[in-house]
Every structure is written in structure tokens, then in C-alpha cells.
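Researcher: Quick sanity check before group meeting.
Model: Go ahead. Protein one:
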Amino acid sequence: MNDPQKTNILIVDDIEENLVALEAILESPDLNIIKAHSGNEALSLMFDYHFALVLLDVQMPEMDGYETAEIMRKNEKTKHLPVLFVTAISKEEKHIFKGYEKGAVDYLFKPLDTQIIKSKVNVFLELFRQRESLKKTSDRLKKTISNLKRANKKIKEQQQAVIQEEKLKVLLQMAGATAHELNQPLMILLGNIELLELSTETPETLTKYLKNIKNAGMRISECVNKIQNIRHTETRRHDSQSTIINLDQ
């Protein structure tokens, strides 16, 4: 059974006694040791389990350890899976180099030394656990960034809604103030026009009425310009106060 709380190790040997002996050496509460009796069986198990390490016997019938490792290196899922070759072959360099060429990361020589096996296996188990921990941390960070992006988008939408609401309030307030400002010069303008219509005064007095009309007209023009500038002024003011973190950078 594949216990997700345990780390999976695959041991491969065509001789059952060798598998039992290796399993006894490696046995640990935090390890799930899976056994395979051939290269083909080992390759099949690699698609069913997530292994930290493979201990692979070199001398096996049909498909030996070198062939098995070579096939592993050609598959995307298993190409980076560490392989420790277990062998009784001579320690001559030509045999060792052949194993490294096929993808071995290290050798275990028979007769097996318990301390050496445990030491080498523990090194690769620790590396595996560190990689898994980094991967989980990376996945959590990606999820957090994704959540922050969604939250950031929602904040932008809410902020835009608030800005539009504030703009409307400001527009209404300024429109009311501007209407009040318009009212006085408009009354002056209308009053002086009425006086002109009824007047029998001298030219000097008429000139005074015309000057009042001109001044009132200029004040009305200023108020109209204020109304036209309200939107642009308020937009710049709100935009300068708005700061959103860009998570895509």
C-alpha cells in the first residue's frame, strides 16, 4: 500500500533473497520499500509510485540494470530519478564508468556493507525531501500569488466604484455652489437689461448699465468654465491618490 506519509524506495533484483536482505537493511518507519524482480516490473512500478530513489541490480536476465537505467533516462517522469547500482561486478573503472554513462548516481558493491548502504541512501533521501519541501513551498506561493491577484483585481473594481461615487458627490456639490455663483451675476445682468429697456437716462448712465452687464457676463462665463473643468480636475485628483500594487511585475 502506498502510504503518502512515507517516502517510497524501489529495490530491484531478480533474486528474492537479495531483495529480502536489502529490505532488512533499509527498513525504517518512514520508508515504504517496494520490490521488483525484473527491469520490466521496475519500469511499470515507476508509473504507479513517486519514488525518491531506485536501488537497481546490474546483473539481471532479459533486461539488466544498465538497460533499465537507459530506458528510465528517456522517459520524462523517470529521467531525473536517482539510481544506485547494486553490483558484484569488478570495481574496475570501465564497469563503473559504464554505469555512470547509463545514468547511475552511485554504486553499492556486493557483499553489501550495511553502514555504507544506509549512509548513501540517507543522503539521497534527504535531498529528495528537501526538493519535495521546496516544491510544496513553491506551490503554496503560487496559490498565494493567484489569490492576491484576484483580491487585487477586486480591490481595483471596488476602488473604481468608490471613485465614481465620490466624483458624483463632488460634482453635485460643485454644481450647487456654481449655481449659487451664477445666480447673482445673472440677476444683475437681467436687472441692468431691464433698466436699459426702460431707461431715459443720459449716455453716461447707459454706459454704466452696459459695464455692469459686461461684468456680470464675464462672471457667468467664469462659472461656466468652472463647470467644464470639474470633471478633469476631480479625475486627476482621485487618480493621484489611487495606488494599487501590480502583482504581475
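Researcher: Fine. The other one?
Model: Protein two, sequence then structure:
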Amino acid sequence: RDASTSTQYVGVQLQVRNTGNVPVNYSDLKVRYYLTRDGAATLVANIDYAKLGASNIGVRVVNLAAPVTGADAYVEFTFSSALGVFYPRTGTDDILAKIRRDDYGPLDQTNDYSFSGATTLAVNNRFPAYLNNALVFGTPPSGAPARMAATNQPANASGATIVAAATGPQALAASPNPFGEQLTLRFALPTTQAYSLAVYDGQGRLVQQLASGQAEAEQAQEVAVPTATYATGFYLVRLTTASGVQTLKLVKQ
């Protein structure tokens, strides 16, 4: 929201949308804004306004144990359980926040990982979102903790690498989106059942069968897909199970 490269206050305008087809609990959602403190000062963050109610939005500053490129801290936004269920095709509307140093010194936004410079709302893939501590949108800075323990599984014939970890039910999600030469898909089924995961082009033609098999109940499945050979354009990822079909629209840049 604040496009100034140097400022006393970092202004953040945030909207989160559930673009999947599964309702989730607001309280299971977190989003993080990564930035640098520009010195030893302590950062302070406050919610100025939220359509959902400022008291329903939590905000805290966490200093990274080891600085990474573009960040030595992040501001984490959380949502009260009083908000209930975050339904598909709905959004939070505006959440406005300010971040400052406790000594009111200047902050240089040009070295902040999540700073986009946009003055109007736009998709920011450097503002990652987590559901049940699993990354479901965006990309954190390289070296930042992902907060998702996982056990590697062998790659399947498609070249996609599958990772599994204990979690809860999770809607099909992709990151980053738009994607470049690599795409990561994640999901967790509520019950043990067979599944099939495939990519289709904008005309509905099969591009790649990624994975299929039996998924254990509430075990997060993470599928890393090499996409360097994909042409630019729109794609659909389809997860088919006995419970139904989930579809995500993706864009290759």
C-alpha cells in the first residue's frame, strides 16, 4: 500500500481469498510479510482497520534466528476462531496494518522481500499464506523456515516428487501461481482413499498425469512438478478421489 522506498511506517493492505472449493477454519490460516528491520531496533505492528473486525486479526513480529536475503523478520497475521469458517469463493476484504521501528527511525523497503511497490491491490507471491502450518500460497524467502516437517518419498514415473507429512484435511493448493520452471501441489484427504492428480491445458487436454495411488487419511501430499517444458498459458490441475473432484486454475509465465 505504501510505495515509498524509505518510510517511517510500512503500510500493508491485505486481502485473502479462498479460491479453492473446500471450506476451512479461519483460525487455521496465517499469512506472513517478510522484511528487514534495518538495524537493531524492534519492529512494532498494528492493525489499523479490518472489515472482519480489527479485534479478530492478530499480528505479531517474529525475528528470524538467521537472516535470509530480504528479511531478518516477518510480520505474521492470524485470524480469530470467532470468525468461524472461511468458505470457498469468499474473501476477507481489506485488512490494513502499519509496521514501524520502536524508535520511529526510517525503514528502507527496497530491501524487504515482501515489498512489491504496488499502490493498488495485486497478487503478491512473496506474501506467503499457510493453512495448518502448510504453505498453500506464495513463496517464502530462500532459507526461511517452511514450518512443515516432511518425509521424502521416491519420485514417480512423471518426474514429480511426492512428499508426505502428518497434518489435517487440506484443499488442493498450488504454489507459486503464476509459476515458472517449478510448481508445488499440496493436498490432504479426510479419509484414506485412492486419488489421481493430473494437469490439463486450457482446452481440457491431458498434459501430464502426475501421480496416483492410495493416500492415507490426513496425510499431506506434496508433489513437486518440473514445468520447464510447459508452454506459457493457462492450465488446470485436477485431483480426483472417491469424495469428488477438486480443480485449480494455474498460469505459466
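Researcher: One line on it for the slide.
Model: The CA atoms of residues 31 and 129 lie 4 Å apart.
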